[in-house]
Write a structure and sequence with these properties.
The chain has 4 helices and 6 strands; from the N terminus they run H-E-E-E-E-H-E-E-H-H. The chain is an alpha+beta fold. The two termini are 21 Å apart.
Length: 137
């Protein structure tokens, strides 16, 4: 199958497909995907740190995805054209933010790798090792 732009439905499908994943609802009904009680994909509610710079209107479609390290985070957010971003609130937090409205700027394959890496960063060492042994050469 040829790769295609990522979609919001892919976030849900890919996160839910990871083993030992549980989807819970946040306090405002926002989906949160967890492994071993640790979030790895988190749909944020509108917050003051992520807003339109011109209107101040809070973004309603921000997805937080965990990353393995600060260098992984920087690699995703350094390019101003990248759909990934961070805010001061997330300084030194191992995650990147992306608006659902900009998911199409990355491929489904890139999204899958990002979500798999997010899961690996939060799963237990045993679960991560088992998954890697089964899915990566």
């Amino acid at each position: 199958m040829a790769d295609r732009p990522a979609r919001l439905s892919d976030v849900h499908q890919l996160a839910a497909a990871m083993p030992h994943t549980r989807r819970i609802e946040g306090p405002k009904g926002n989906p949160i995907y967890q492994v071993g009680g640790k979030s790895f994909v988190f749909f944020r509610t509108p917050q003051p740190d992520a807003a339109d710079p011109d209107t101040g209107e809070r973004y309603f479609d921000v997805i937080m995805i965990w990353v393995e390290s600060e260098s992984d985070k920087l690699a995703l957010v350094e390019d101003p054209q990248s759909p990934f971003f961070t805010t001061d609130r997330f300084d030194e937090h191992p995650s990147v933010l992306i608006r659902a409205s900009r998911l199409g700027e990355i491929s489904r394959t890139e999204l899958a790798e990002l979500i798999q890496d997010a899961w690996l960063s939060r799963a237990s060492k045993r679960r991560a090792s088992e998954w890697l042994a089964a899915h990566r050469p």
